[in-house]
Amino acid sequence: MTSTQRHTEADYRDSPLYGFAVRSKLYRPFTIFRGLYRTYVARSDAAYEPASWWDRYYTGQPIEDATTLNPGKELYPSLYHYNSIENLILSYLFNTGAAVDGAHVLDVGSGAGHWLGFYAGLGAASVTGVELSHPAAEALSERFADNTRINVIQGNVAEREFDRHFDLVNAIGVMFHIVDDEAFDRTVTALVAATAPGGLLVFGGHFGIFDNVNVQYDREGRVNKRLRSRRHWRRLLTGCRHVDFVRNDAYRHIDATLPENNLLIARR
Ligand SMILES: C[S@@+](CC[C@H](N)C(=O)[O-])C[C@H]1O[C@@H](n2cnc3c(N)ncnc32)[C@H](O)[C@@H]1O
């Protein structure tokens, strides 16, 4: 099986309904309503097997930022998506006086390595990436072989124990791919514990009203993306001093679909 294991935009791009949904931005609420139907009415909740799925996902296609979003994703919307998140993180760091310079950073689900490069570029003393997919982890190790501050570990974050503290923990577009509820709660709790007191946790995704909404399925009908509510996240982050939800409205200004890319930034 190749990267076509997942429904891609190319499957729909020629449909007038898709064009309307993209231009009107109605694809966002539509994704949630369809997810609510599938989750609570059709009750389709068989989960995917993450390790083999992500191995296959990155096989047979270039491993770059755009393809982490969707096979065949265009360059401009991809850059726009990453820039919009970067801007929200930068404004948050600047407005709160937080500095990455000299920090030890953990990046969860590093994909093609965008956030490894971003935090290294901000002067982090070290950036450790944990990436589940073997091909992606290998590509990352090659890409950053000359950068002694960046270290990539292949593994499942849900099964890792961290024996040290990080000043900043980053997980953009990753946590909703931990579909198993027990693994999700355990992982968020472990990431909080791995954050130094006063350190930051930066999560990218969707933090709405409805909990455990299955919004994406593979071609075999198994869930590979599940959104948790704000309330759910708050419960897991009770040990943190501040929890801020930062809305990303960038999708309103481009006629392309963007993944869920709001931010939750917490200070331990
Ligand atoms: C949508 S991509 C996002 C990649 C990257 N964070 C970015 O924003 O460019 C999700 C990534 O998380 C990785 N991933 C999914 N589940 C994981 C897990 N349990 N542990 C570590 N990595 C995981 C996938 O292999 C994939 O590379």
Secondary-structure element series: HHHHHHEHEHEEHEEEHEE
Our measurement of the CA-to-CA distance between the termini, rounded to an integer number of angstroms, reads 42 Å
Unreliable stretches, pLDDT < 50, 5 or more residues? none
CATH superfamily label? Vaccinia Virus protein VP39
Number of domains: 1
Number of strands: 9
Tally of alpha and pi helices: 10
Tell me the radius of gyration: 18 Å
Bound small-molecule species: S-adenosylmethionine
What is the strand and helix layout of this fold?
Layout: H1 9-12, H2 16-24, H3 27-41, H4 50-57, H5 65-69, H6 75-96, E1 104-108, H7 114-121, E2 126-131, H8 134-143, E3 150-154, E4 166-172, H9 181-193, E5 195-205, E6 213-217, E7 223-227, H10 230-236, E8 242-246, E9 262-267
Parallel strand pairs: 1-2, 1-4, 2-3, 4-5
Antiparallel strand pairs: 5-9, 6-7, 8-9
